[in-house]
Structures are given as structure tokens and as C-alpha cells.
Design brief:
21 helices, 3-stranded antiparallel sheet, 8-stranded mixed sheet
Amino acid sequence: MGFYENAFRVMRQCYQELKRPATAPLATIEAAFKPHSLITITERVKDARGNLVWKTWPFDFPTNDGVPGTGHALPSLWDYIEMIVDWMKQVFNGLLHDHSDWADTPFMADLDVPHWWDTIHREIPADGNMTPASVPHQFLDRAQQVAQQHPHASPEFQQHSPSAISWFLEQFIQWFWRRVEPDLSKDDDLRRLWILLDLGQSNIRGMIADDVLIYGLDSLDNQEYRTWLRRHGASDLAVNSHLIQGLYDLAFAYEQGEGTNPSKANFAAGASIRAILRMVFAYQGAIFWKMQAGMGDTVFTPLYQVLKARGVQFKFFHRVANLGLSEDERAIASIALYRQVKLNSADYDPLVSVSGLDCWPSQPRYEQIAADQRQLLIDNQINLESFWTPWKTMGQEEQITLSRANGDFDKVILGISLGALPGICPELLNASKTPTAKAASRKWRSMVQRVQTVQTQAFQLWLKPDLKDLGWQTGISITSDLKGSYSTVMDAYVQPMNTWADMSQLSDRETWPADKAPKNIAYFCGPLQDPQGGIPPASDHAFPAQELTVVTHTVNTFLQQDIGFLWPKSTTPQNPNGLNLNLLVDPKDGIYLRANVDPSERYVLSVAGSTQYRLKAGESGFENLYLAGDWLRCGLNAGCIEAATMGGMQASRVICGYPKTIVGEVD
């Protein structure tokens, strides 16, 4: 996303240090990331006959001159309030132009004058002409004037201006509801405008009422976002809108992965608001930036190459079994590892070249593994990255214990994700010899229990027709620099495969035979419901295959029932809702399914009441253990690349004092 200032800063430094030849693929960060502006929300609404139908709601976000990763500070919370009011006025005035008769709508003449009226009126510019009986739609103008004047006004004005803004917005939205409510069910544009304005005013009024300007957004995280919106006056139409569902879909915000169960939707209010504000009002350049190769090739390969060139040593094919505490439980004294394979050489090279670009492959480079183990891995289709791999029971692993006393390590950075911690940190979760150890252990248990994670699922398609020939007709992104003017990222569709991204730009980096070259690449994803009883033990070797079967069934159902709305030209006469599988570039290689079930790849949620239990990088409670990841309390507190980067920066700062500032760490 365009507000990922820290992630872009790291990648910008990385690409600069790589110094790839100008003619090389993805030679610069500008070549690796391209701006994308068209976002689509789908809606399930009633048509004129009362039938439920799907409709698309496109947002073509304007680009700006900003460049992400160059040191931009984020707006303050007051800046955001001013931005929201400005935006509300802009979108409302666009409608008012088509409803000039509204300008003369009378309002209640006996409207109570608030106690702050004279104070606010005194410092508003002379052309404000404020009176209690003003035409109500002009109250939106008044809110804007107060917000703009606030930073330059007297202390008395600043004391009352939040209440004034809240009051003006309340009067405006009450009038607007009375004016438009009869027509909302038959006018898509009007209904959508209501949703936008109602969400804008309820977010501002809620932030003001709950003193977020004083206490920050984290102070709201004990409340669920939709519940919080209702408490501050948002209508059911707005709260239950697909626009809000799109936010939840973006963050896989469904407890236990139950995307089809509305009662399981759970996103902490503060984290939700922060995500919306930064995503919509703080982006640099474009709201989204699309990678021009796979993430492994665009992000992780350059990072690996830079670190290796600096002299960092990498030891592949090791899995962590346990972090062992010292006798007094004050520090990490040992790390139990298992070396999974024997290599032909001391230094494993993980990369492969694809059309001149160094890439991170999806499977090991078997030729570098000892011959006897290599064949076992291939014959048994062993996934060494799986928590449930039978490899550990086949007698092929070698146990290694790193010891602090022997000088094997000094400081330990734990960057493994949250879902895996119960399996590798039992000693940290159960320390009890001293009051200090007990307190640290209690915090660990609270974090693991309260900061939830969820499985996810995904599938990808490689198709012969391009988007236009598939029948996708929603919006033309005139600001997008991507291949295909219809390219979009979409949320709020059928659960659980609720999100779709057109990733056709990746075809330039893939090596298909000429007769199978895809013109469209589509990525879909969503939450995957957790199994009964939670994460099964490592001995349940069949679990990954079972979950992949679940995903296969979900994908087959989706492709047969739900693809027709998106791509009406991709179907068959026999089934106008289902995909014609002959459009795949290859019956086998044209589709890829994935069940993301491993503990370390479970998505970290931001459920209500969990933020206070997140630890910071230097709060492990053990003197030589530092934490890194998107599960930390980093100032964003939501699962994403930016939060992971911020968590890593926190760890670096605690260890060496750099970087001194982390953009977005404080609201």
C-alpha cells in the first residue's frame, strides 16, 4: 500500500545498494513496484424487482506526487479529521450540483444554540455568516471552516472546535437522512453517497467523543469496529455495507476463519480506523503499488542478496524446536534446532534465474542436497516447511543445540510468527522460578491467547483471454500504469473467496510456451475456517492434505457458481455462472491452490481487546531476547508487510539505537 513508508524505505535502500545493471530486470525500485489506483467493492443489493443482485462499486483513487519510502511523516489525527471533512464536502457538493432544489430546504428555526456558538463564530472568517437557522447542508461547510481554523485559532476556540465539528456534522447528517431516505433503495449513487458520508461523520464524531485526540487510537481497541460505529450514530445501512465488509476482507478479520459467519467478524476499532485513515488519506503516489514479480523475487531475493553481500551468514534447512531458558530463567541459554538435510557444499544457493531475474523458487534446489536424501524427499513428496511433515519421523534430521555459554550466540531475535510460538517457546510460556520470570511468562501467555491468528486460503488462475475478453467491464483506471485498463483489486465478494486481484502484469516475468502464454492472471484469497479443536499436533501428517481438500472444494464451488458475475464472457451456455475450464492455459498448470495452515504462516488478526496484550520488540521479559514481526505492538498493530517492517525496526532500535524514528509508530 502507498502508506507503507517504512517498508518502501527499506526496499528503496535495498535496491539502491544492489546496484543492478540498468538493463537487468527490476533494476530499480521504480521497475519493481508500479502504481495501481482502481479498487472495486462488490455489493449484494436488491434490484427494482426486489431480487438480490451483485453490483460493482469502483473507486479510481487519484495519484499524487508523493514517493513512498522517502521520509514522509504521516498526518496527525487532527489532520485526518480535517481531511475527512474536506473529502465529505467534496463528494457531497458533487451530488448537490444535481440537486439544486436542496439549497432552499428549510431547517428547524428553533434549533438550540450551543454554548460555544459565539466563541466559534467570533474566529471563523467573515464570509462564514453562521446563524443557527442556516440551510442545513451548509453545516458541512461550517464543519470544514472550523477544522481549517483550529490550528491557527485561540486556545478558547481550540477547546470548543472538536465539539463544534461534531455538532455541525450531526445536524448535517440528520438533515441529509430525512432528505434522501425515501430514495436510497432505488438510487445506487445516492445510497453509496449516504454510506460514505455517514461513515465519515460517525468516525469523526466517535474519535472526538472518545478523546482519541488525547489518548490515541489504541484507546479504542477494546471495542469492535462495527459496534463502535453504531455507538456513534452510524446507520445499519452504513455499518452493514459491503464497503465495511471490504475492510474486514482485506484483513482476513474473521475469528477462526469463519468468513461466512457475520458474528465472527472482528476488527478492533482503533486498528480499523488507523488502517482506513492511512490507506485512504496518507498514501504516497498511489493507493496500491503492484509488485512486478512474485513477492519472493521482488522483496525477499533483493533483501537476501544485500545481506549476503554484507557478510551475513545464512543456514538453510534448519527448524527450531525449542528456546531454552537459563537456570535462573532470566535469558535464553540454548536454542534446539534440527538440521533437516545434508548439503553437497557448505553454502546453499537458494536462487534460480528466470529470464535474467534472480528468483526464489517454490521448492528446494534438490541438486544441492545429498543424493540419498534428495531422492527420499522427491519420492515421498516431502514439504520440509510443513509443521506436519513426516520427515522428522523418518530419521533424517540431525539435532543441534546452540549454547550461549559456548559462545554460539549472544543476542536472539525471534522473528518467527505468532502461531508457531506455543510449539517452540514452552519454557517462556511457563517460567515460574522468580517473580520476574513469572511476570514475563504471564505476558507471553496473554499474548499467545489473546492475539488471535487464522488460516487463509488462495487460488490462482492463468487464463487465455484478457480481462476485457473475459467480460470484466467495471471501471477504467486512467491513472493505472498496469497492463490492461481494467486492472483492479476487488474486495467484498462471495465468502470466503472474497478478494480478487488482477495480477496480469506478472506474465512478463513468467516463462510460458508461446502456445500457452496467459493474457490474464487472477489471484483470489480469503479466510479458511479453523479445524475443530484448533491446530492439530505435528503427528497428524495428513492435516495439510485434508485442508487442501477443503480448499479444493471451495474453489470448485466458487468457479462453478460465482465467476459468471465477474467474467460473464468466461462461462458456458450450460452454466452462465461457472467458468469454462477450457479457458485455462493448461488443465493442470493453469490453476494453483493453497491452504495456508502452518502455524508460522497463519495470519495475525487485530481482534477487539487484543492490542494491549501485544508485546514490543524489547518487551520479551528475557534479557537477551528481542522480538520482530507484525504481531508486535508497533503502532500499526495489523497483519501486513508494513507492521512486520516496523517490528523489525523496533528490534534494531532496541539493540543498536537505529533507526531513531519509525514512521507511524505513534498516531
